[in-house]
Automatic annotation (TrEMBL):
PROSITE patterns: CENP_V_GFA. This is GFA family protein. The keyword Transmembrane does not apply. Keywords: Lyase, Metal-binding, Zinc.
Amino acid sequence: MTEENKEYKGSCLCGGVQYTAVGPLDDVVACHCRQCQKTSGFHVAMTRLPLKNLRLDKYETLNWYRSSNEAERGFCTRCGGNVFWKPTGKDSVSITAGTLDQPTGLKLRDNIYTEFAGDYYEIPKVTR
């Protein structure tokens, strides 16, 4: 199986939202913005892929919240799991890395919006 057609499975905590992402996936970016902190309680680690490469296998509990003019966030209405981030007007979607079944083979590539990082943690080191 090549990277182009490798399948990654994932879900929220309760399994109400289940998906298959057809690779390759971008390496992970940790976002430290206040919106990510407010939706997760911490920074959010996400990977990205073209929207056409995401298949929703189970989505009865999936709901979308427009968190800003720039994006909307997909979450599970049963367990509250933060699963997706979709930028407005783009053909891509980001998946919270923790919802992917392991192993993923992904690496942390970058930290963004670090100026908003909480004072209770250190910025994760990026290894390349």
